[in-house]
What we know:
The chain has helices at residues 2-15, 17-50, 67-80, 91-101, 106-112, 149-189, 191-199, 204-241, 253-283, and strands at 55-61, 85-89, 120-125, 140-143. By secondary structure, it is an alpha+beta fold. It has two domains: 2-50 and 151-283, no CATH class; 55-125, no CATH class. The chain has a four-stranded antiparallel beta sheet. Helix 2 runs antiparallel to helix 6, helix 2 (17-50) crosses helix 8 (204-241) and helix 6 (149-189) packs parallel to helix 9. It is elongated. The two termini are 26 Å apart.
Amino acid sequence: MIRHAVAEGWLLVRSRGVVSIVLAVVLAVPVSLAGVTLSVRGWLDPVIDLGQRENVVMVLLHPRLDDSERAAWLDDQARVHPGWRLEPVPPAELARRLGEWFPYLAEVLDREGPEMLPPLVEITTTEPEQVAELAGQEQVLAVGPTSSVNRLVGRTAQHLAVVLLTVAVVVAIGAVLLAAVWVHLELHRHAEEIAIMRLMGATEATVRGPFLVAVAVPSLLAATLSVGATVATVSWLARLAAPFGVVGGTPPWPVVAGEIVGAVGLPLAAALLTLERYAADDDE
């Protein structure tokens, strides 16, 4: 039975050689894209983590607030936002920073003293966008930038990984549907032969074997192409990323194994479902 399935399946592949090659390429592209994405995402983990790190946002309070009012405001924010870490900056420290950032202010600061500066509070949080809401309070004079380059880079890397994986999944679904349609068309093309085989007492395994072999051949070719393309692409990207301090490497073995399983298993599963449906329809 196995010899018959292999022989008949190979005849199907040879008679539909162009279709088999197209099917293999169409399967290899999304599988390889997913493998490259998963491999590169492993490199980007430290970059993606930047988007989840805490950020420090500076908030200037009105100078007219006295010590008790500032303390009450700090206590109120700590109660409303328990995840925030609020640290008042001493006037002398603020004066030192301003003197470093804006040297032309050093003379004024020395003459007037740090007491002339408005109170500054540093808020450390993982959600800096929430700090921007403080700008509407009467106690707040100004709110500093609520975003950072690290946060932007981290979120961009995360979105890029999601987009690539989504594209890979969509294209893979299309490839599986192509395999199912191909099997469906071949079943109809050989409908008379299948009917004769069943009348002669052939088992379902004998009937389905050649079609499974015909799908397995381009699937194995797709697995080979996808792994080769992934290794080559990941190596190329690793060389490009090296000057930026991103440590690359070869695809992890779970990714390679997943590519092989996906390239072979998905079209075979589609073929089995199609054959099962065809047999059910035929029985009716």
